[in-house]
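Work Package 3 (structural annotation) set out to generate three-dimensional models for the target panel prioritized at the project kickoff. During this period the team completed the workflow that converts sequence records into discrete structure tokens, so that structures can be stored uniformly alongside our sequence database. As a representative example, we reproduce one entry of 322 residues exactly as it appears in the project archive.
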Amino acid sequence: MNYKMHNKILKLGNEHSGFFLAFVAILIVLSVLFFPISKFSFLTIYCFFLVSTIGISHGSLDNIKGEKLLKIYKIKNKYFFYLAYILLACVVIIVWNFLPSFALIVFLLVAAYHFGKEDTQLFLETNYAKQGVTLYGKNNYFFILFKGLLVITAPLFFHYEETVNIFRILDSSFSLREYFINIFFAISIYSHFHFSFMSKIPTYESGAVLIDCGSILLLNYFFPPLIAFTLYFCFLHSVRHSISLIAMLDKKNFKKGTKIFIKKALPLTIITAVLFLIAVSFLSNSYELNESILKVIFIGLASLTFPHILLEYLLEKNEKRT
């Protein structure tokens, strides 16, 4: 990516943090003064629609990345990637069915690390590289994990019972003492400051990290856990990752890259959304609709998250070698 394009992407990332905070603030004002969002009918359905479209769209170019990985490993049959990706997703669902506690804990940790990494590297990686510091330096793995863990600890801190009830739909034996939540919550907030001030990066970029932290805290203070997560996942995490993908598709023209992204992302996004709908329909024979939707949202995301993260890891590992 050329210097001019990098600066444009970085600027878009910074502006996105500000726009998202303004978006959250507007929703809070509307909810508090005029239309209490938490009292809307069919709220779970709305969240499901957003997650299964906008939310999952940022992973819908994994097939392109998969083909790139196959070339690295000199595998000519592209269907090998699709088979491996689907099999791993199915394994996650099967493991969750037999070992829900284990699967939930691993998913929360992996998702937290993913959130921390993807939401940060757009701002910091290049700036660190200029100073000889990397995002994956000493102790940074720890702070990446806890930075992303704010998405999980914030709803537990502000809405403990409601959040625990969601987790118990996914794992009936789930329990977590509030004492540990307070500790994890504090470390999560500190981790945002760590990435803001650990290095002499531009003030605007370091401010964007703290703005994201403030947005997540406001979301979870004013809104129920499912709404807060949906808004974060769709309009902060997914959009942030999509900006990086657009830059990957066209390193010179962001507008052209956006058009390419939409065109390439649409097929797999539609297929995944349809599969999510089928899963809800199937589970609704055994569970209430809201419970079925929650299972599909989070177990479905888990089944996609593991192969998605593994793909990202393998690509980064091989790119470092070259």
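DSSP finds twelve helices and no strands in the chain.
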